[in-house]
Amino acid sequence: MDGVVDHLADERNKAQFDVEEMKIVWAGSRHVFELSDRIARLVASDPVFRKDNRATLSRKDLFKNTLRKAAHAWKRIIELRLSEEEASKLRFYVDEAAFTDLHWGMFVPAIKGQATEEQQQKWLPLAYKMQIIGCYAQTELGHGSNVQGLETTATFDPQTDEFDIHSPTLTSSKWWPGGLGKVSTHAVVYARLITDGQEHGVHGFIVQLRSLDDHLPLPGITIGDIGMKFGNGAYNTMDNGVTRNGKCVRSNVPRQLIYGTMVFVRQTIVSDASCALSRAVCIATRYSAVRRQFGSQNGGVETQVIDYKTQQNRLFPLLAAAYAFRFVGEWLKWLYTDVTQRLQANDFSTLPEAHACTAGLKSLTTTFTADAIEECRKLCGGHGYLCSSGLPELFAVYVPACTYEGDNVVLLLQVARFLMKTVSQLGSEKKPVGTTAYMGRVEHLMQCRCSVQKAEDWLNPNTILEAFEARTARMSVAVAQKLAQFANPEEGFLELSPNLVEASVAHCQLIVVSKFIEKLQQDIPGKGVKELLGMLCNIYALNILHKHLGDFLSTGSITPKQGSLANDQLRSLYSQVRPNAIALVDAFNYTDHYLGSVLGRYDGNVYPKLYEEAWKDPLNDSVVPDGYHEYIRPLLKNQLRNARL
Ligand SMILES: CCCCCCCC/C=C\CCCCCCCCCCCCCCCC(=O)SCCNC(=O)CCNC(=O)[C@H](O)C(C)(C)COP(=O)(O)OP(=O)(O)OC[C@H]1O[C@@H](n2cnc3c(N)ncnc32)[C@H](O)[C@@H]1OP(=O)(O)O
Ligand SMILES: Cc1cc2nc3c(=O)[nH]c(=O)nc-3n(C[C@H](O)[C@H](O)[C@H](O)COP(=O)(O)OP(=O)(O)OC[C@H]3O[C@@H](n4cnc5c(N)ncnc54)[C@H](O)[C@@H]3O)c2cc1C
Asked: Which of 95, 260, 264, 309 has its Cα between 20 and 30 A from that of 354?
């Protein structure tokens, strides 16, 4: 900030906590903070990684630009000998969806998680050096959610010792796989395995798609891009492919790990949610402190919009959620690492819980984040609608996360199955553990009474936890009892699916709240850091309580009076967080390059920069627009003639 006026300096001076220590908490460790900071600056200072022109490039230019960035990123990774951790941060700060995401994020993990030792030895070295580029070809035109409904077949031919991969119908074309359309040379293709005329369910097969010499599709394979997607720029940096195959390959896949890649990616999507959310919140918070409307007295300055309680009521729960998702993401990473180690030792006991947690939290965090980005756009008033605010593109890139890697409702139904199984086993020898351990106290939770008598009682973490546990247990038991009345359980499941989804949401919200509370039990250094995190935790929980008051009241988990007291406490928490708001978003340590937003600039110098940005639009290249002579001038002349008549 040398030589630059900091329009947010007063705001920064108000902070009541050590922002440098908060940066470490947000990053996860001092090591990660320093590494992220270094790589963020490296990316921001490299002109090839410029991204402020994305909204105005044509699809072809946009795509070619992305190829250029990916090649440059790879060159820098090699030149600088970046570690895997550093390379992955570099990808994060380059901030552009590309085929490389699917290569590193799905193709490589699919081989690591599902291929035999021999297959790994063959394919991984090639993939690690990017001598082949891979994608993850599961979804078809006709089926995405219903993986068992995939139509592509892989028929083993004992004569040639090969698998014949075949898409017999239009609907069996692979449709959507990122990178497939124009770049990938290889794919993990999911297909129904057939041997000796017998079906063995869906398995993954490594298929070569294109020649490594001239990039042409191999014989029998038709490939292309599926067309423009939502939003200018945004996800259109990515080629999403369609393909039909009739190609032969060798493969041999272990049976039980078919879904493993999806568990891995869902876990990374939860961590990403806190990044996208914090980015939108950073923009909206800084701008809310800069923007002033109404309230001027005797010609004095107007009120900063962040001081309006309605703005705080919309913004601060999103800020709190960004921190909440950060911590639940950390925990989920731990859970994933743990389940992976167990699977390697052939222990499958915790896989159902890992599946339920990754599916449920992926659904909860992405739905919330997509809605929150749109809310942040509205929080920025009209200027939020400008591409230079960064918010329209962020929304367009982020919103498909609600669909890819499992539609969010379909995933909540998976959680519901897990919850119903847990409830049905209560009273048996199998005790609920992990995230469902609270169900072990179901008798207490079905009849306990919330003890809150005054607003401050809601600051007790045990009180909050018990209210959330009682709500979830009661909702789950109620729907389980309804299910039991159906002669056919699958019919009951379909009929009651809206209630089941609501119980799953409650369960996932409980997980997020409980992991935030667990985080606060750790040793967290730095003046005021733990106190501020405690406030955010309470805001996160009490806001959910307010938004889902119907659940809490209808299950008798709290009384109407207690609901009202929770709301009083929320308002008081907003006042306490307000002076710290700018410092809390500074703790994300985002560079202006990464934020990509005039409204969210670190220095708060919004208006001159908005004006400057507007002049850069290609429409302003000429004073008189193209088309004037063909379409405007004749119109005006006609009007003139008509007026004279
Ligand atoms: C330009 C810049 C470049 C820079 C470059 C620099 C270089 C970079 C270097 C490093 C960078 C690193 C970058 C990494 C980036 C990573 C980012 C990753 C980005 C990813 C983007 C995402 C793209 C999206 C991809 C996709 O969408 S892939 C397709 C996903 N599809 C789905 O998710 C389908 C959803 N459907 C299902 O999951 C299921 O089939 C279903 C819903 C579960 C169906 O269920 P069904 O009823 O049919 O049940 P069954 O199938 O019979 O299930 C039976 C039992 O199995 C259990 N089950 C189900 N699923 C799972 C599971 N996943 N895991 C475990 N168990 C599971 C189920 O519970 C049943 O159990 P039971 O006990 O009840 O029998
Ligand atoms: C940007 C993007 C990138 C993608 N990348 C890849 C990729 O790299 N590789 C790949 O293989 N795939 C990819 N996909 C595909 C993606 O995984 C699927 O679109 C996703 O799994 C949803 O499946 P679907 O499209 O079949 O939705 P559908 O299942 O057809 O969903 C349509 C509607 O039906 C509802 N529905 C479906 N089933 C049920 C049910 N049982 N009960 C109640 N409601 C139900 C859903 O909630 C939804 O509202 C990508 C998708 C997008 C948008």
From this structure: 95
